[in-house]
Amino acid sequence: MSSDLEQRPYNTYRSGPRGLKSRLRGEDDLALPGSGGPGRYDDGRRIYRVGPGWRGRITPRRVVGVVLLAIVAWLVLSLGLFLVSAEVERGKLPASAGAALTPGSNMLTSTDTVLILGTDQRPAGTHEAGANTQDAGSRSDTIMLWRIGGGVSRRLSIPRDTVADIPGHGENKINAAYALGGPALAIKTVEKFTGVQINHVVVVNLAAFPPFIDAIGGIDVKTGRVCAEISGGAQNGGWTLNLAPGVHHLNGTQALVYARIRENKCNPTENDLTRVQHQQDILNAIKSKLLSPSTFFRLPWASWDAPKVLRTDMGGPTLLSLFAASEIGGSAPVEVLKPTGAVVLPNAGDSLTVTPAAVHAAVDKLMNG
């Protein structure tokens, strides 16, 4: 073999395992005849050849391959963090809530109904009643039915002051059900009020809302003139928000304040129905930010924080199918159940009433389009 090598314009070497740097430079194992097999010595080790014209170099193809590999690894890491975090948060929903639900189906191929609840829990550290609590005494600030799956995405928002019969408690504002019996009683109350079987429930955890929005770098929202105080305003440990008309980049705290505005001193015509639109603006802004290239580098942190915003019966895979079904179904405007009258309840004060016919018409549109 040595005589053959002296007649060749190159040398052969015994090679060990190649590292990533060697692969990038193009240094490769070449097959040369030998009794140990093609490209191998007698003892089975590979023959490694270098010489004129064989010097490796970094090629665009190799660079693209490494970049694609890094992107895939980043996405897999983000997915893993999301699935683990979602499973942890899933365990925080009371078992009674899961028991109150009707089993659902695969939302990629068929349609389910999801109840979305946002509580009026006050942030810890403020001087308002209800601060430093999680569920006790909290009412559902947002009540929305979402018909989702199989190419369908329709939503119906129920004003929180709507009068409803709460099982075991009689007539009251519908948002009192959450305070009286948590998400389980809220599910039963909404089902009785609308006649719709609920397959999944999502309770928005407002305390985790700001960290998640901060994790994705804030959001851009177009607003009108805003002069509002939340949680008693800055003087009571809450927040005061003043915005001029236009597009604003909001951090997590500002976005939460905007989503919870009940009274806009700069526009007294705004009410609870306007707040539904504010919340929709926030959700649309979050969706746009998550799909933007700038969020890619924040993706693992956002993936870990996202499930913390929700307490739900759905695990990671089901949440992913929900998000996919939402993309497929599109973003139709949120329908609001419009009140047909008003009444003063002895135990709840000024309340809104809706005739059974109006409820039936709104539910029919939700279910059948």
Task: Tell me briefly what this model is.
The chain has 369 residues and is of the alpha+beta class. It has helices spanning 2-6, 20-25, 60-90, 95-99, 176-194, 209-215, 252-259, 272-290, 299-305, 316-329, 356-368; strands spanning 11-14, 47-50, 112-119, 140-149, 152-157, 163-166, 170-173, 200-204, 219-223, 226-230, 239-243, 246-250, 310-312, 335-336, 341-345, 349-353.
Descriptive labels:
369 residues, six-stranded mixed beta sheet, 2 domains, 11 helices, alpha+beta
Overall description:
The protein is an alpha+beta fold and 369 residues long. The chain has two domains: 2-58, no CATH class; 72-368, Aminopeptidase. The chain contains eleven helices and 16 strands. It has a six-stranded mixed beta sheet, with helices on both faces. Strand 6 (163-166) and strand 7 form a beta hairpin. Helix 3 runs parallel beside helix 9 (299-305) and helix 6 crosses helix 7 (252-259).
How many separate structural domains? 2
Q: Order of strands side by side in the largest beta sheet?
A: 13-8-3-4-5-14
Largest sheet, strands/sense/barrel: 6 strands, mixed
Mean pLDDT, to the nearest integer, reads 82
What class would the helix/strand composition place it in?
alpha+beta
